[in-house]
Write a structure and sequence with these properties.
alpha/beta; 8 helices; Rossmann fold; Immunoglobulin-like; 2 domains; single chain; 23 strands
Length: about 400
């Protein structure tokens, strides 16, 4: 049996996964759920082999939730996804980047017979974004994703990604908006709440905490950064260009981890460009923030988000002392949303003992994208709404 298959990729709290496959066959065939097997072949990192973390190509059997018959030649196969199943992305411990798995193939066996299907493309929840690139005056080229509502607006939300979403090989800005649930910023719920907002998501060629553009300060999975960034000028010029393009009157800057770091760097160097900031698990070590910078930062609206059990960006070295200094300096618009852990709140992922699935404590951006942050009664999206002037 010959034909084609098209995949659908959706974004989730933990990343993205292939949830549906549309089969289009050249001849009529009967496909039943109980007699269908779907096998996925892709790159994976073997996290058990330390410190090599080799990248392997392995095959897995996918969970089939349902098979929907459209007609005698067309079917939609609905697949189960979870934090451990169905992602087309590869996270490499060598580069610390997420990339599209190459190869990534799906095989379909119906009633014992392998279908001869050719890959025919993909649809993603990120397709609502457009993509472009910008070359700054220093020669740095930044790829970026952007979303502009049908009804023009002068409100802008900028998202700065974490370490895993940078790079240039086997990646593009769709990874930036799919590896984390940045698609929530173009969701009906967010857009209606903001009464329409442009969204800009730049992608770093390496990572925002890079000091010289070579990535040389990333050693053994740890970044040695001092509060500076090689991409300060290029990112500033990109943002200024885009603000001018849409005639932005209000801009809120948000980012996680590396992006939280860069959010703080931009706040310290270019406060005139933004109306408010949401640094999430931000990675500027407090010892690199001067008293003069604290005096400047205390005037800005800042909404910090972090989890107490973050082992990647330890709050006691980063957010906690900085927030204390800001409040001691008299900051009046500093908000803090903290949690003990980062757990699944969707109810989709449950441990064997009935407790919610627990994510890495560094992943506190999940709460931001689900509007579940709470700073003494002020939710993060309400903070964004306020400073977008809605």
């Amino acid at each position: 049996m010959k034909g084609t298959y098209e995949i659908k990729i959706e974004g989730f709290d933990w990343g993205c996964g292939i949830t549906e496959v549309t089969l289009r066959l050249e001849e009529p065939v009967e496909i039943e759920k109980d007699k269908l097997v779907v096998k996925e072949t892709k790159q994976v990192t073997d996290f058990t082999k330390i410190p090599e973390f080799p990248i392997l190509v392995q095959t897995f059997e996918r969970t089939i939730k349902d098979v929907e018959k459209i007609n005698d030649k067309e079917y939609i196969v609905k697949l189960g996804v979870s934090p451990s199943e169905g992602s087309p992305l590869l996270f490499s411990m060598k580069t610390m980047f997420n990339t599209w798995s190459d190869p990534y193939d799906l095989a379909f066996i119906a009633d014992g017979e392998k279908l001869d299907l050719t890959y025919a493309g993909k649809k993603m929840t990120s397709d609502i974004f457009s993509y472009d690139s910008f070359t700054a005056s220093d020669g740095v080229k930044l790829e970026y994703a952007y979303y502009e509502p049908e009804e023009k607006t002068d409100r802008l939300v900028i998202w700065l990604h974490g370490l895993g979403e940078g790079g240039v090989d086997h990646t593009d800005p769709s990874v930036t908006v799919m590896a984390n649930k940045v698609t929530s910023l173009v969701s009906d719920s967010f857009q209606e709440m903001m009464q329409g907002a442009n969204v800009l998501a730049p992608q770093s060629p390496t990572f925002w905490m890079d000091q010289d553009g070579t990535g040389g300060n990333l050693l053994g999975g740890e970044i040695k950064a001092d509060g500076t960034s090689y991409y300060l000028q290029s990112l500033t010029e990109l943002i200024q260009m885009y603000q001018k393009k849409i005639n932005a009157k209000k801009t809120v800057l948000a980012g996680c981890s590396n992006g939280g770091y860069m959010t703080m760097v931009m706040a310290m160097h270019h406060p005139e460009l933004f109306d408010a900031y949401v640094p999430i698990c931000e990675a500027v070590n407090d010892k690199y923030i001067s008293d003069e910078q604290i005096e400047a930062l205390k005037k800005l609206p800042l909404y910090f988000v972090y989890s107490e059990d973050d082992k990647t960006v330890i709050p006691e070295k980063y957010e906690i002392p900085t927030i204390k200094r800001l409040r001691k300096a008299g900051a009046e618009n500093v908000y803090v949303s903290t949690t003990d852990h980062v757990i699944d709140t969707s109810g989709l992922y449950i441990n064997k003992d009935g407790t919610p699935y627990k994510y890495n404590g560094h992943w506190s951006w999940i709460y931001f994208f689900n509007n579940e942050c709470d700073a003494d009664g002020l939710k993060a999206w309400d903070f964004v709404k306020k400073y977008l002037g809605v």
